[in-house]
Amino acid sequence: MKRLLSKAELTTADRVSLYKSTIFFQWLIVGIVVWRCVARGVGPDELGIAVSDPWRITWTTIALAGFLCVNQIIGLRRITRMPEDKRGSLFAITERIMPRGTRETILFAALACTAGISEEFLYRGFAFMAFVRVFVNFVPPNAVAAILSSAWFSLAHFYQGRRGIITTFVVGMIFALFRIWTGRLIPAIVSHAGIDLVVGIYAAKLLRKA
């Protein structure tokens, strides 16, 4: 990201390379973590990926994803009405890496779905489980796991600057709370992918109209 953002202008090849490499490495990390979880006897229920209570999970997923995506759309519409120098560095980064054209859009959609699945599995699944195991005998484990896994999640977005770190921490806490409440990752996975799709595809559409 530092190398790409240091360029004056990103090309199609730059964005495609970013999308493909991110997809590859995220699935690689998921594969390694799954391998170690199986080796250590970590079950799907502990990771939040077991199947249970489908109706509750369905309506919770629809409500959470709908609320967050609508909120994102409203925020993007407000930002794109501002002068360019008032939109902030986070939106400037987003604008540079959002897709242009059909091929980029398809790859970006694949990236958004990958991020929704892999990042939620890694942070709200694996990291959350690990922190619960560490602190279960000392403090309320779910609360500590929610805070620490969200902090780790936000630090992974360090390249987005202070505002990006704060935003991803807050979103991470929301996802962690729903993971605790439902015991499952599906609401967070769908909402995460939905937010990324809105940012990448809808924002690009708004900027073309501006």
Poorly predicted regions are none
Helices and strands, in N-to-C order?
HHHHHHHHH
Number of alpha- plus pi-helical segments: 9
Strand content: under 5%
Q: What about the largest sheet?
A: none
| Class by alpha and beta content | mainly alpha
Report how far the terminal alpha carbons are from each other: 26 Å
- Mean pLDDT, to the nearest integer, reads 90
Portion in helices: over 70%
Describe this protein's structure:
- The protein is mostly helical and 210 residues long.
- 80% of the residues lie in helices and 0% in strands.
- The chain has helices spanning 2-5, 12-40, 44-47, 54-80, 89-97, 101-135, 141-155, 161-182, 186-209.
- Helix 4 packs parallel to helix 9.
- The longest helix has 35 residues, at 101-135.
- The protein starts with a helix and ends with a helix.
Descriptive key words:
single chain; 210 residues; mainly alpha; 0% strand; globular
Please outline what is shown here:
The protein has helices spanning 2-5, 12-40, 44-47, 54-80, 89-97, 101-135, 141-155, 161-182, 186-209. With 210 residues, it is an all-alpha fold.
Fold topology:
Elements: H1 2-5, H2 12-40, H3 44-47, H4 54-80, H5 89-97, H6 101-135, H7 141-155, H8 161-182, H9 186-209
Helix pairs in contact: 2-6, 4-9, 6-7, 6-8, 6-9, 7-8
